[in-house]
Amino acid sequence: MEYGKNIRGSFKGLIPFLVFVGLYLGSGLILQSRGVELAFYQFPAPVAVFAGIVVAFILFKGSIGEKFDTFVKGCGNQDIIIMCIIYLLAGAFAGVSKSMGGVDSTVNLGLTYIPAQYIAPGLFMIAAFIATATGTSVGSIVAVAPIAVGLADKGGLSLPLVLAAVMGGSMFGDNLSVISDTTIAATRTQGVEMRDKFKVNVFIAAPAAALTLLLLLVMGRPEVIPEVQSYDYTLIKVIPYIFVLGLSLVGINVFVVLTGGVLLSGVIGMAYGDFTLLGLCKEIYGGFTNMNEIFLLSLLTGGLAAMVTKAGGVQWLLEKIQKNVKGEKSAQIGIGALVALTDAAVANNTVAIIINGPIAKKMCEKYRVDPRRSAALLDIFSCVGQGMIPYGAQMLILLGFTQGAVSPLQLMPLLWYQQLLAIFAIISIFIPFADKLIREKPWEWALEEGE
Predict the structure, then answer these.
(1) Residue from 298, 299, 303 nearest 16 by CA
(2) pTM, to two decimals
(3) Is 120 a member of any domain?
(4) Which domain holds residue 397?
(5) 83-109 residue pLDDT tens
(6) Helices and strands (H, E) in the chain, number of each type
């Protein structure tokens, strides 16, 4: 897909996307206000995005064939297909591991040795460590979320709060990891070294993470702390999770990790008589089908994003924000707003950075913004956006493990890390506390000033 090249901005290009978001969030909010159970799952999200696609076909110029070609290319975008395959494998791993008793054993092992009041902050740190080591928030969520759901249930903890801790830790690691797609995209588009971007980024992310951990320690305590006791568990059934976590930390490809996890869980399950070979096949397929809604939503959203982009919807956002940029500080605010809004439109933080990177580079040159700072802002605000939108891959996978028990509306107010990260990033624009380690000027500036 080509983004922002020879495309004229048009508000009309955003209308189909607004229809999708309006139907999805609007129906959920209305039903929630009426006390309907699982309000956000009553109106299927794939149907909401399909409505947006129909509107796009009606509104946008060109022949049906041209519009369909753009839509299909968006659906077939490499990032979308990779994400969809991850959904299927994650569903298979979760289904097989649960069926053979792996979830129960892992949860019981954790409850035996970890006090319930420390589970939420502990999950934040584990998710953060995995995401930092692997460079992927999705991989971290896939590895940690199933265990988190079980720990919340048996530990008497708030499930939305525990899930928010996993999401926050995953986005923290994704934002800071030097092997993350977002870090690579941000540094390459701004022409800076990863270590310099990290120096700015860590001064903004670390305080947000520290405050989040404090909040989780205080607010993550169960109403009634269960008595310390030993729970029944079979250690060998915990091995698939250790296997997945270990290979993730080493940096093995997520497809290899999840496929290996499925096979290992399957072998253990058959050895313990939890299912036969035919039963294993059925469990794998059941895991696939559990991810149907997420799979369809991501696929269709990719197609809609391509149509919206080609029709000038994203370009219109870019142009409107650039008109309000007047100086260095407003330029930095503009960079953050651009990438966050673009991420909301395309539901992919790496793509959002790629779209806005060249624009941010020009704004840096015009308004004398340090490119190392702009790289950090691009990564930070794209992660804030991706970690908050209810139709993003991270949110969809995370809530998919709850089987409809938690809605996006319940989770979003508890995403403290993302909220604090945005606050600290904005403060750093007006009070440059994050620039302590990059006092030297960019070489282009030094040349201009004859240094």
Answers:
(1) 303
(2) 0.71
(3) yes
(4) 11-223+230-439
(5) 788 778 878 887 898 899 887 787 677
(6) 22, 0
